[in-house]
Amino acid sequence: MVVRSLIAGCGAYLPARIVSNAELAERVETTDAWIQERTGIRQRHVAAEDEATSDLAVRAAEAALADAGIAAAAVDLIIVATTTPDQTFPATAARVQAKLGVTKGSAFDVQAVCSGFVFALAIADNFIRLGQARTALVIGAETFTRLLDWADRTTCVLFGDGAGAVVLTRGEGKGDTTDRGVLTTHLHTDGAHADILYVDGGPSSTMTVGHVRMLGKEVFKHAVTRLAESVEEALAATGLPASAIDWLVPHQANRRIIDATARRLGLSTERVVLTVDRHANTSAASIPLALAEARADGRIRPGQLVLLEAMGGGLTWGAALVRI
Ligand code: UT7
Question: Cis omega (within 30 of 0) on the bond before 241?
Fold first, then answer.
């Protein structure tokens, strides 16, 4: 028998305010048609002024714990993947821990931008498999719109706010691909390309929060090739063929990138969980938001094989295969 990290529950939270493409077209020179055609985005949620990333994270975490039927008191590891922490420190995860009333174990943030959830999932999986945690909350939470330059049409139309969470518990399996739980994770970073997607501020450089800057076309090209590589790596590590994948739950940056990945895998669009049209790019929150949606509406069922993949600033990228 081997130890496996099981996904015991999923939860999501989206701020109430919805901003349409038409509303953005009143602020910058863009059109609903351009945004939809180039990205697939129709709208995004934007956090209220008094809502911080930890508030979104707590709502998603509470929903995930309720879905799992597990009390917060059982949690001994909280990882928040975020690029938009409440404060430079303490970690947003520490705020979340306190708000949930959790008093044991550890809580920390992971900064891998849009790949953050896959990174956090891999870390939590390692903690559980090594016996260093039994019940983990893995959260992707962002108030990403706070980083936007609302005068820059090349970035301000692309992002939104939200949070998603999963509860990971310690389980056992045979050690083969029929096991439930996290089967394999693959993480990559190539800092040589940091300048094609970054924020032009920070506590030790400009002492400001800064705004997102992106060379979209360059990022797009990297995304298509890097994602394909990490997906192939995950399949090779398990010996599973692409045809075994029941669902692709990708990071939701751009419909065209998602379609390209699905095409390479030979997956029809019915097997892809898409939220980019309604959520836009919520960075580290996009995968757990999509996962929670497809679990809640009954598309993803117990025993099914799910492929998660993401790429973001860093550059960072990665993939995970999980049997739900
Ligand atoms: O989550 C992290 C990872 N991020 C990503 O994966 C994002 C990857 N990149 C992309 O999704 C796409 O590159 C974008 C959606 C950002 C842009 O799409 P594109 O097809 O690469 O367009 P482009 O940047 O080549 O721009 C085409 C034209 C340009 O005008 P010219 O130079 O052809 O006259 C832009 O100035 O579209 C113009 N443009 C816009 N027009 C209307 C750029 N943004 C807008 C806009 N509205 N919002």
Answer: no
